[in-house]
Design a protein that fits this description.
The complex is a heterodimer of chains A (292) and B (376). With 292 residues, chain A is an all-alpha fold. Chain A has 15 helices and no strands. Chain B has a two-stranded antiparallel ribbon with strand order 1-2. The relative contact order of chain B is 0.12. Chains A and B meet through helix 1, helix 4, helix 5, helix 6 and helix 10 of A and helix 1, helix 2, helix 4, helix 5 and helix 6 of B.
Chain lengths: 292, 376
């Protein structure tokens, strides 16, 4: 190959890579549109009147700009929305706090403490993680009903207070931390709980943040488990309220600004968290994958 | 509960704490605190997970109608009847259940390959070294996965039945169907377009005979147009999560491997085909099995977007079980459906755990073999 040939082939390669880069960006932008446009439509529709949303579903400019049929109706107590928000906040805060505490307690014990039955408990945790959630819908209702707490706040919160996957994540984390500091504290005579609370948990911050986010996202978005736990309108969480509103009234053009603005407000807390702490979501997703 | 698997140190501590006093004292404290630490989580999981499963197993053997306790002596015990109604005996229950199995089968056959391929494609593009702004695109693709399924489905209901999607289709001259209310089977439609079969007058060979309470014509219907809409929705929301798994795996493929194959004079396609894809095989397997497990559980989207309709073409086993229980108070058949679904899903879960137990070793061996083959 002569020098000239070589130069020419390098030139071709470069041109091809320019084309490749262009194509790459074209693909990315196309898919970014596909993935984000529905959210744009959702936001815009939240500021349309009902008539506008029905007549011009694709227009990106509300005409007139109005929240009368969306946020205005949501704010009214009779919509059930304020109550649903309140319920969702209460449930999410309690469930997240409970999960982070109970899961890390159990995870720490399984990783560090030697007690009889430890392997059996861990085996059971692994087995429980394999049980698919929707299979538990009927069983869960049966037990709540039997315990007499169906359709109460307790039914919304108690069953979600600990989860096997969270225990698993915390156990994996604690096993990756060196034991030397704990040993030192132990020799100083600190109790096991004291060591856990003041020595171990502060070191576990990254794992705790991951677990907090997973629990927050999971309990804020949870739908099916809530559906089989309560039936009163007063006890609906946001996803249940929205599902009953949307599922209950199929028909073209009905109340879309109301539904979409409700969906938007249900999305915002997790979206904010995602924007601020995305790397923890990414970690959670990959750990969720490992657990299978 | 077995204690034979204890480590020697534990056994020594529990049997003879006295000779090594200090250590034994600490370790015996651990036994108590160990159980104290795990007991809240274990108690919650037992009460709200293990006991419910046992209780549902009992209910699946009864004709409980939802009034009083299922354990009371008034509740008729029907043995395996609920299961034979589902699987053996011809009747409405079996017809409904088999319809839901058919629906979710077609749904899975579409969702799993589509979301896997899309996730891999997006990961390869986002991982490309020459592009900038990858973080933004990665977030954009992942975002639908973290939001509430109920909220996302609400948006899709608006897009598909509020006229937005058909508005876009009109720009390119296509008259879109009535997405969320079209029960026509797509395989039947395609057969009709090809003039092989008239969907309005299907051949009697297919309609007069059947299998498990559905005619062959019904089995071969394919996913309904409405089910296709749910497929699009789910592929769109889940591909981001799986893209992240592929991205993590791609970052694990060392630069050296790529450089070595570059030196061997391979082009980009050969590297993808013979080096990258084989090394991604464990991830692909994980994505496919997680996809299978998730697809068989489809529930939220059905509840919100279609409620099983039109013509029962979007009933999934999970949603059917819910309806039988909560709407019809047929708790026995509903619980039995849950267990049959459980059995189906557990097969995929066990398959996954079996194959993933030694994923790294398998991946390495394959990659080495492939890169040798590519060079040769």
């Amino acid at each position: 190959m002569s020098t000239a040939d070589r130069v020419a082939s390098v030139g071709v390669g470069r041109r091809r890579s320019f084309a490749g880069v262009f194509l790459g960006y074209a693909v990315l932008v196309f898919f970014a549109l596909v993935y984000l446009f529905p959210f744009v439509i959702q936001i815009v529709t939240s500021f349309k009147t009902q008539a506008d949303a029905a007549a011009h579903p694709l227009s990106l400019v509300p005409d007139p700009f109005s929240v009368r049929d969306s946020l205005g109706r949501l704010a009214n107590g009779s919509s059930g929305f304020p109550r649903a928000v309140l319920n969702s906040v209460v449930v999410t805060v309690l469930v997240t706090a409970g999960r982070v505490f109970f899961d890390s307690l159990a995870g720490y014990a399984l990783a560090r403490l030697r007690f009889p039955g430890r392997k059996v408990v861990f085996g059971a945790i692994l087995a429980v993680m394999a049980v698919p959630g929707v299979v538990l819908l009927i069983p869960k209702f049966l037990v709540l009903n039997q315990l007499g707490i169906y359709d109460t706040y307790a039914a919304l919160v108690l069953p979600l207070l600990a989860d096997a996957a969270g225990v698993f994540i915390m156990k994996q984390f604690f096993e990756s931390v060196p034991t030397s500091i704990e040993e030192a504290a132990r020799i100083d005579g600190a109790s096991t709980f004291r060591i856990f609370w003041s020595v171990v948990l502060p070191m576990a911050r990254p794992a705790l943040i991951t677990l907090t986010i997973l629990s927050f996202q999971g309990s804020w978005n949870e739908f099916a488990q809530v559906l089989v736990s309560v039936q009163s309108a007063d006890l609906q969480t946001l996803p249940l309220w929205l599902a009953n509103l949307v599922g209950g009234s199929l028909g073209a053009g009905t109340q879309y600004p109301l539904k979409l603005s409700g969906a938007l407000l249900a999305t915002i807390p997790v979206a904010l968290l995602f924007a601020l702490l995305q790397r923890y979501f990414v970690r959670g997703a990959n750990e969720g994958g490992v657990k299978g | 509960m077995t204690t034979s698997t204890q480590t020697p140190a534990v056994a020594a501590a529990s049997r003879a704490p006295r000779p090594r006093r200090r250590r034994g004292g600490i370790r015996s404290g651990e036994r108590l605190s160990g159980w104290l630490f795990v007991s809240p989580a274990v108690l919650l999981i037992v009460v709200f997970l293990a006991i419910p499963v046992v209780m549902a197993l009992w209910v699946s053997l009864t004709g409980w109608g939802g009034i009083g306790s299922p354990f009371s002596s008034q509740v008729p015990l029907v043995g395996g009847k609920n299961y034979t109604d589902l699987l053996g005996q011809d009747g409405l229950v079996r017809q409904d259940f088999m319809t839901s199995i058919r629906n979710v089968f077609y749904y899975t056959v579409l969702v799993v390959p589509l979301q896997t391929a899309l996730a891999l494609f997006l990961a390869l593009v986002v991982n490309s070294k020459v592009l900038r702004g990858k973080g933004f695109f990665r977030s954009a693709f992942y975002f639908p996965s973290v939001t509430s399924s109920v909220a996302i489905t609400t948006v899709f209901v608006f897009l598909f039945s509020g006229g937005a999607v058909n508005g876009v289709l009109k720009w390119v001259g296509v008259d879109g169907p009535n997405w969320l209310d079209d029960g026509r089977g797509t395989i039947q439609l395609v057969l009709g377009w090809l003039h092989l079969v008239d969907p309005d007058a299907p051949p009697s060979a297919l309609t007069d005979h059947g299998f498990l309470s559905l005619t062959w014509w019904d089995w071969l219907a394919g996913p309904s147009v409405t089910m296709l809409t749910l497929v699009m929705l789910v592929v769109w929301t889940t591909s981001g999560t799986f893209m992240l798994m592929y991205l993590a795996a791609l970052q694990g493929i060392s630069a050296e491997v790529e450089e070595a194959s570059l030196l061997d004079g391979t082009n980009a396609w050969q590297r993808l085909r013979y080096v990258v894809l084989p090394m991604l095989k464990p991830t692909t397997f994980l994505v496919i099995t997680l996809g299978l497990i998730g697809s068989w559980q489809v529930f939220d989207q059905v509840f919100i977007a279609t409620q099983g309709g039109p013509d029962k073409t979007t009933f999934s086993p999970a949603y059917l079980s819910y309806r039988y229980g909560f709407a019809d108070k047929s708790w026995g058949p509903a619980a039995a459906m849950s267990f049959v679904l459980f059995a189906i899903i557990i097969v995929f879960t066990l398959l996954q755990r079996f194959v993933m137990r030694d994923k790294d070793a398998i991946a390495e061996r394959r990659a080495v073999r492939r890169s040798r083959k590519a060079r040769a």
